[in-house]
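input
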Amino acid sequence: MKTLAVLTFLAVLPAGLAIADGRDHRHGDDCSVPMADWQPREAVEALAAENGWTVRRIKVDDGCYEIVGTDGRGARIAVKVDPATLAIIEVDHEDGGSRHRERDRD
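output
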């Protein structure tokens, strides 16, 4: 009986850890790209310029690039970008205290 309890615990443990880390991995919120395949930060800066964004900071979040800055209207934004393809994964807009989120992939 103890063996069955231990096996059940071990089977459920990975699901519990995924929930405990606060991320929903089904939506692809993290990027799993080897560092050797990453585009340089200069390419991320060029992407931001092409979109009319002013970059305050480029950081790494969940293995993705994240651009923190403002859009062409001056609204604060945070943009999550795939480090290999520079595809825009998610855009968070902050307009006067409200926040709007756009996602390009599920």
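quick obs: The chain has two helices and five strands.
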